[in-house]
Amino acid sequence: MTMHTYLDFERPIAELEGKIVELRKLAEADPAMEIEDDVARLQAKADALIDETYSKLTPWQKTLVARHPARPHFSDYVSHLIDEFTPLAGDRVFGEDRALLAGLGRFRGRAVAVLGHEKGNDTKSRLTHNFGMAMPEGYRKAQRIFEMADRFGLPVISFADTQGAYPGVGGEERGQAEAIARSTQASLNLGVPFISTIIGEGMSGGALGIAVANKVFMLEHSIYAVISPEGCASILWRSSDKAQDAAAAMKITAQDLLGLKVIDGIVPEPPGGAHRGPEHTINAVGEEIYRALNEMNGLSPDELRKQRREKYLAMGRNLA
Q1: CA 192 to CA 312: how far, in whole Å?
Q2: In terms of domains, do 300 and 264 share one?
Q3: How far apart are CA 7 and CA 90, in angstroms?
Q4: What domain range includes position 38?
Q5: Rounded to whole angstroms, how far apart are CA atoms 253 and 62?
Q6: Helix H or strand E encompassing 196
Q7: Is the residue at 320 inside a domain?
């Protein structure tokens, strides 16, 4: 049995699954032991507890799930969903950004442009990818990909998963805000279908710069907002300790945002979150993308631009 990285609120689950692991280790040492009934009983309890726990997660707990280190990342989606993926690097201005990756490939036989944030999955890769926080050159690369896709009639698929664009001195010196704005403008001007999925954290303009799409989906336990709960708490209460209160007030969950008509759909996750069933989660996202692309078949470039523009202009209207 694979041992998971458990979140604080999952301690009761960890205890039950820990007992299962202990029993199996004892059985390995003594093959005569009969443990199957005990294991089945404990597993049933653990499964029921997982279902119960994940059916009533608070916004802050969803934030923790969205940040789980084992959650599938951009590279996992590309390896499972995109055939013949060819990465494209550089912004033709400054250099290559490893936090925002992009390239061309085939999605179920159809040529597409793909881009998204990559956080990395261990210390070395997280440093390489700057924890998914893109520099200005990342968004200028995104702009280049958008313009290329538009020129060659390639649908665009993006995966947002970032705490936000890199906020350091280097990013500001090279024009972070302008780069995000240009990337957003390029995505609004696309005359091809554009589908974006929030697969973990979709924070600030760092996420929006690659997510102004015709269809925006969120995984069930992902989050999407103008600022992180910690950042919001620091501004409002001068203390990041109030992050749980901020998360509840900000309406950052997929369920909240679907109700507010900010997103177009929610992709269900397996019991216990995407990290417990990465392949199942990725396939579910693939099905949603496939359906959305089929819905936009036959729409002209002007119709696609109009649909995208009207979608964003309508946000916030008639919600009383």
Answers
A1: 17
A2: yes
A3: 37
A4: 8-56
A5: 7
A6: strand 194-203
A7: no
Residue 178 backbone dihedrals phi, psi, to 5 degrees: -65, -40
- Mark whether 15 and 116 lie in a shared domain: no
CB environment 288-315: b (16+ within 10 A), e (fewer)? bbeebbeebeebeeeebbeebeebeeee
Number of domains in the chain: 2
Place of tokens 């001195």: 169
In three-state secondary structure terms, 264 is coil
Residue 3: pLDDT band (50, 70, 90) is low
Given the structure tokens 């280790």, which residue do they identify? 25
User: What are the tens digits of pLDDT across the range 164-173?
Assistant: 999 999 999 9
Q: What is the pLDDT of residues 142-191, one digit of tens each?
A: 999 999 999 999 999 999 999 999 999 999 999 999 999 999 999 999 99
Q: Are residues 257 and 119 in the same domain?
A: yes
Q: Give the SS3 label for residue 25.
A: helix
Whole-prediction pTM value?
A: 0.94
Residue 318: inside a domain: no
Residues 151 and 233 placed together within one structural domain of the fold: yes
* Strand 82-87 relative to strand 215-219, pairing: unpaired
Same domain for 32 and 121, yes or no, is: no
